[in-house]
Inverse folding.
């Protein structure tokens, strides 16, 4: 994962991986390739427990793995890098690539091919030809709202490399924090960061770390809005007098740069001049989103400026600002990238549009000749499932773009916005879902089987752990903290069945949150993809598809429902000594109720007993009650549970219609009266 | 934990911790105290899920917690700091201390007092008077053999502060790596570290981080032996010509400084002059251990020097070296500390002796007027249980030291030597055991109840997680890697019942290991204190103490033994696709055999059936076979299992003796024929 462009299993033969495993580098070799091979070896050792030689073999013919690299490619990763490679295994594994980055991509595939059976570890015989579908495959990490350490960013880079992502979009300034040391304007980080910023050495270190893995780093300094943390130290940049303080809450704030003063551009010019030396990438993200225009409208001097220059409204003033910005960026050798708000008449053609409000702006941009990157549908902070994001394609088969227009669609980016994530939880909000998104960006459009995706995602998820990513391990940490140290076993049953509420509903369900508040509730511990719920949905689907026998998987389903019904007492006992669980006990009660309802319905189905309408209405009402979001959590099997109840109530209809017709009827009856599950880009 | 010097529960009253919780600082306030309060608040938020105000309250009378601090204490932590505090709770919590460090210690106690019930979180009404028993309470971390990142060291410092340890003994150079940037002698880190070293900025950052938490940092640069990584870049320092390479294996190497050349001292002088500016502590650890003297004996010039100066042997030459070293250290304002080998006639009295070879040298040193710190008995890398270390006292009740001599015993240090730990596993080798050792150093000599210690250790262990320590969370990571991503459930049963072999036996049981090899075997995943085994030992003890009924806890014991007997099939299935488990399956078989044997014995006991001697001999032989160490693991209930078998075989004797006599007889019969469990300082 991501699935290669072409894989042929060549049938016979396998390459054993044992203590005698050796590696030869044949062709171009540099430090980057050597370091990549060493990292691969360390992970191979970790998985196999074998002590492997770090010495490269001089005998390519006899080596287990031969890496043949034609040339260096770009010494600094850049858009348009050749990332293709081939991997051929039989007697030995031969990995061939035109560039070092191509070889690095192939080494990740090599590691994913590692298999094992009673005879030991091996690489199966395959022939792989691989190249990415899109050249821009990114992950945005917002460190403005919650700061994340250098070590954390580095482990995300390792994980990104493992799933062949190639752009870290580093969102470095926000209303809630300015995260970069500026020697030119030290009040930016001194007053705008609570002391939580990256030194210039650290920034260079991260850029180099990314370079070694074939990953570009595109910095974002959002402007003219989202600049509260800038104007704490430099209020003269704003369009209203201030003073300002670092934002602690979330949302859209009024603070916006004054685009009418030459001093503003002088400041930006100096700042970009200083910081652009640290980021070698050709692209520079200026943000440009969510400027509410209020300060501009309220400032008579700015209004006067607009009249004088014939600028009709705030979006037009922002375009004026962007035109100035483009000039500054050109001077420093950078190309502008921004959120889709910047797509207004007059925007210079070199600007790259990042679509966040919908796929439409990407299409519009492409038709107007702008390059674009899709993020709508990949907002992982909305807490949708991997399947939801997986279904979104930057360039769907239904697209009406001409090939020339389509070439403007460079790829996509998952966006990890920082309102509701801190160092302990951000990994579980990025991973493993982003691996599914990475597959969407790398693999063929036709790779869309969701079950197969989840099967492979589960394996990749565990492999990512070896890179230090904490998405799996930290769940238990949070559960143990909630129970105050008691065995969280009973809580785990519940935690495995709920999902965070989608979208930005959490804010309305928990006490007023700030950047300084705790992210240690159950909602922080649970996965966005409840595998337990998936299994239950599957079991109910199976059972109802087995009409009129209702046998398939029944025992397993009953077992699970029984554990729900009986589990709440244990959680209540835990809660007696752990007040942090107080918000959870209603969920445990709801789960118990649903268990009882489900068991009731199954008993009716298995005995052919048809309950009356009063029973049905009572159960449906109880389910509606039990599946309402609470503690920012929801049970993602409300519909399936309703189906079970309707199935019991409507058994009689099976006498007059085919099982398929009956099932369709049940599904219609059970269709949710409430808001559907979160959908792409919601 | 550590238990305070004096605690009185004052009975009535409690201080609620809720969203309205406020804190007031009354008296001396500085950045250190303010930062300590903020860190405490963040952890309090994390545990409670409450959004708490970061603003300090101006109204001390109404505040939930009032911290009254008399003065700053030492601005840089130093030996002799007043760490005492009092904590009084009733209407509000009043924490009073003479120094900021005392207040910080009290804040940790405050957090440990947090309790919860159905009415919410609260601090119970208590009166605590607390001060440490020993002023030197340390943890050594060896980053020479395996490098550990700055972030990792920082989280250990946080955890140390949580259990009131106050010295980080940072072992910074070893044969396997030189970990400090030297601008004066750059080949030290450039050629001696594989690129894994701390920059001087990072070192300063760690020292400051420790200072903020009231922790001293004592650097160790081991010499004249253990210097292979120094002489890679500077072979002229050695007593034999070289060339040298960084050591990859472990053990005692020959490389040793040439103590006869003035240039050696010039180098050391310059080096200490440079680096001592980074470490403000008054103590400087020179190592001094495990110099095998071979290079000295083989070098005619050195032999000639010894004759000329009347130096009779290698220890005497090392004392000569230490005398020169003392002068250099004095010049740079430092006091020498070293391992107990340095305690030779002629050693300057200001030297501090760290006893590693046994408690004897500490006593000898004290009698000769040397200060000393005990590490023998606290070698946590030997993988003994917490109980083992807990039983060792730096100044036992049986000590024959006079009060004046006893005052030379400054305290102790747990030593985390780095041969068998890497970033993923070091936390589980340090924690939670070191919390038990910390209690030994802080609390009264009389605090020795092992069961109570384990009860409290389990709670503290979970609390340490909030500081980022990975000792609990990484176990599952390693298990998942071993199974190749499959659910490690079946493996967990086994993992919970084994302990790593004690002492340094592992080296003999697994393939030749180097600093570059994997630390991802089952032995790396399991705890040094098998709580599962403790429970089984307890159950067997209970059952046999219940002679002649053999009822107490029988059902639970049978349940566990049955799960052992039936568990190996699932592990074997996992191993079919996960070759890394190959070394584990024999252990699973052994566990299954023990389960069957145990069930057999219990059946005999419960039915009053007396098996014959052949049965007994066969079972004992089978147990001997099943409990031999394998894969560097052992089952720590061999004796209890033997008791069970002897009990079944010897039931008849109950007719002729009291249950107590009978039990004593069983224990004698079952006493291990093999080496006992690892004991303190073994």
């Amino acid at each position: 994962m991501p699935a290669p462009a072409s894989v042929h299993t060549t049938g016979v033969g396998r390459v054993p991986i044992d203590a005698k495993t050796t590696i030869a580098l044949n062709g171009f070799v540099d430090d980057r390739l050597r370091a990549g091979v060493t990292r691969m070896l360390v992970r191979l050792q970790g998985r196999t427990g074998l002590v492997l030689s770090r010495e490269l073999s001089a005998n390519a013919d006899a080596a287990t793995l031969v890496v043949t690299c034609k040339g260096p490619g770009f010494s600094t990763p850049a858009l348009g890098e050749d990332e293709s490679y081939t991997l051929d295994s039989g007697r030995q594994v031969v990995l061939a690539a035109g560039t070092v980055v191509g070889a690095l991509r192939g080494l990740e595939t090599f590691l994913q091919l590692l298999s094992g059976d009673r005879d030991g570890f091996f690489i199966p015989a395959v022939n792989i030809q691989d190249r990415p579908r899109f050249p821009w495959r990114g992950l945005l990490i917002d460190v403005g709202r919650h700061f994340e350490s250098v070590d954390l960013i580095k482990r995300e880079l390792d994980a990104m490399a493992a799933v062949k992502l190639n752009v870290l979009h580093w969102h470095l300034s926000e209303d809630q924090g300015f995260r970069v040391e500026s020697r030119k304007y030290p009040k930016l980080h001194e007053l705008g960061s609570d002391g939580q910023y990256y030194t210039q050495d650290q920034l260079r270190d991260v850029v180099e770390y990314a370079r070694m893995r074939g990953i570009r780093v595109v910095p974002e300094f959002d402007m003219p809005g989202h600049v509260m943390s800038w104007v704490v130290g430099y209020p003269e940049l704003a369009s209203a007098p201030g003073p300002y303080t670092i934002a602690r809450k979330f949302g859209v704030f009024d603070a916006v740069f004054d685009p009418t003063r030459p001093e503003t551009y002088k400041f930006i010019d100096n700042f970009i001049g200083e910081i652009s030396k640290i980021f070698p990438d050709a692209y520079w993200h200026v943000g440009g989103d969510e400027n509410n225009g209020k300060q501009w409208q309220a400032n008579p001097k700015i209004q006067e400026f607009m009249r004088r220059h014939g600028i009709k409204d705030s979006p037009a003033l922002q375009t004026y600002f962007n035109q100035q910005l483009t000039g500054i960026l050109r001077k420093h050798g950078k190309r502008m990238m921004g959120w889709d708000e910047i797509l207004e008449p007059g925007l210079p053609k070199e600007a790259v549009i990042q679509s966040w409000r919908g796929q439409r702006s990407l299409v519009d941009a492409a038709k107007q000749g702008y390059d674009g990157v899709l993020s709508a549908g990949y907002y992982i902070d909305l807490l949708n499932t991997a399947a939801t994001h997986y279904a979104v394609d930057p360039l769907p088969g239904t697209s009406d773009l001409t090939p020339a227009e389509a070439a403007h669609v460079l790829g996509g980016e998952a966006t990890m916005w920082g309102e509701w994530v801190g160092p302990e939880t951000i990994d579980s909000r990025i991973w493993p879902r982003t691996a599914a998104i990475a597959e969407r960006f790398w693999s063929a459009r036709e790779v869309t089987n969701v079950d197969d995706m989840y099967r492979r995602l589960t394996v990749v998820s565990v492999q990512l752990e070896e890179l230090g990513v904490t998405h799996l391990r930290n769940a238990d940490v949070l559960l143990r903290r909630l129970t105050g140290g008691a065995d969280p076993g009973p809580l785990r049953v519940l935690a495995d069945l709920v999902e965070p509420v989608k979208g930005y509903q959490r804010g309305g369900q928990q006490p007023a949150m700030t950047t300084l508040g705790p992210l240690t509730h159950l909602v922080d511990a649970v996965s966005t993809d409840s595998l337990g719920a998936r299994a239950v949905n599957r079991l109910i689907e199976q059972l109802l598809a087995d009409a009129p026998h209702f046998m398939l998987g029944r025992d397993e389903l009953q077992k699970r429902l029984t554990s729900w019904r009986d589990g709440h007492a244990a959680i209540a006992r835990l809660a007696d000594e752990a007040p942090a669980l107080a918000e959870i006990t209603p969920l445990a009660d709801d789960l118990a109720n649903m268990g009882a309802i489900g068991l009731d319905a199954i008993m009716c189905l298995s005995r052919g007993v048809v309950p009356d309408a009063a029973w049905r209405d009572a159960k449906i009402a109880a389910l509606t009650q039990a599946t309402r979001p609470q503690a920012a959590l929801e049970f993602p099997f409300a519909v399936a549970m309703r189906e079970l109840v309707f199935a019991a109530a409507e058994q009689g209809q099976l006498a007059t219609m085919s099982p398929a017709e009956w099932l369709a009827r049940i599904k219609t009856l059970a269709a949710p009266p409430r808001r559907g599950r979160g959908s792409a880009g919601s």
